[in-house]
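Our working data are protein records whose layout never changes between entries. The record below serves as our worked example for the rest of this section:
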Amino acid sequence: MGYLSHIPHNYPVYILSHTTRSHLKTFRQHFSIMSKFLTFTAVAATAVAAYAVYFDYNRRNSKEFRKSLKKKSVKQAKQAKKVEEESKKSKLDSIKKALAEELEKNPIPTELSEKENFFMQQVALGEQLSSLPGQKMDAALCFYKALAVYPNPTDILGIYQRSVPEEVYEIVVMMIAVQPPAAVTSILGSNKEPEIKPSEADLD
């Protein structure tokens, strides 16, 4: 028992006291951080409220302020429109490139005997790719090629509109606009008004 003689009789109390002091120190630190955060939040809220009052007052009473707001709004609208147009152009360019590369690598069959199987394969693959993330362009290429061999492309386009995911369908439509398949151009050509040539009687 001699080796325990140097341990104070109040050892458990000492341990408890030391632990309590440690916890109190940690609590004070957390409390200090929380107090600073609450102070910052209160100051920020006051600043926001003050600006709201200032903004409302000037909007009601200052003609120049209202004019500057309108000018700023018009400028922001123009910038947003410019960004949107640039985004559309970039998307269209990427669609053009993807379509050209795909048709060069995998041409659309022209033989009637091959078209039916090709159509079924492309539709099935397009449906599969549509459900995968990051495969919208590839899915649209499949649907485009299927439409290109279908006898009545307007019918299949209507089916696409009802069954294909909207983003994929939009890409297909853009592909058709960029490079209309032969079946589409033939329909467009047949819908043109016939050219009326003057008769000999009209020329007299």
